[in-house]
Amino acid sequence: MAIYEIFSHPILVRYKTSIFSKATFVCLIINLITLLCPFFITFYSQGFWKKIDVYREQPDVSFKHKMLLLLETQSPDELIFWSTYEQLNQLMNHELLQTMPLVEHREEDYNRDGKRDELKMTIDVPLSKKKVVSVKLLLIFDYKLYFYSDFSMECAAYLQYSTSLPGSSFSTFGELSLMQRQPLKHAGKDDKYNIPIIDFSEPGNPPTSFENILLGYIRRNVTTSLKNTYSVWETGLAANESFKINLVILYPEETILYKVGFWQLLKWALVQYIAVFFIFSSISKKIKTYLFQKHLLSSIVINPIKQKI
């Protein structure tokens, strides 16, 4: 007949001694090493307090129907400027020729998740025989995130292209990417940068040029930029004497930096500490078992087997 193990349990052997003894002192030192060494190892190996982390989120982006357009021609005195800001048009009136382009655009949501995936736009600018050699375009967007903090801001996409050859059309394709010099909050409402990029409320400092507008924008710690761009410049003059701009701007999923909260910070620290602590705990237990079983430390042994016998 085959014999097999049906049940087992360990035998607990106790070792007792007084508080002021060599065995107590040795055990205290081993316990302190077991508790402190995992902390020092995890702390000085970097990443113990993980204050900044990343996550992925599809931003909620929408075009605000606000833009600035500047076309430079072969004649330095014939600059073609237009914007959706009437105050800015008035400020530019003494320097630049204003024209009214035909603008068509639409935003697509391909995966039907309620968030727009891209912007398609065409701009048709009447030229009256002017030869365009440079394009500067600034588009204004609303940008929102919801996963951790309720973040919202007014952001911009700026594109520029110049050449020595006059063109009839310009096409560009790119991605509106988030740029961070500081992490976002982990919770709560964050609308610090939900302010106009082109602000006419500041006295004595009107936005009278692309340089001033872009300088004020780039000083923000959180901005957007047009990345991964591909451009096509068509040379020659259009048959209808107009310059056409074609845009496709994608709103990709972003990798976002954020400050972790207290409980996530504590959880990450405990996971690292406990992982190393188990190793030291196992080693210290083997050391104490060896010391007491070999009677290297004097103590009173309470063995349940011998007591029953």
From TrEMBL:
This is Transmembrane protein 231. It is found in: Cell projection, Cilium membrane. GO terms for cellular component: ciliary membrane; ciliary transition zone. GO terms for biological process: cilium assembly; regulation of protein localization. Keywords: Cell membrane, Cell projection, Cilium, Glycoprotein, Membrane, Transmembrane, Transmembrane helix. Its main location: membrane. It is a multi-pass membrane protein. It comes from the Eukaryota. The keyword Phosphoprotein does not apply. The keyword Membrane applies. Transmembrane component of the tectonic-like complex, a complex localized at the transition zone of primary cilia and acting as a barrier that prevents diffusion of transmembrane proteins between the cilia and plasma membranes. Required for ciliogenesis and sonic hedgehog/SHH signaling. The chain crosses the membrane at residues 23-44, 265-283. Belongs to the TMEM231 family.
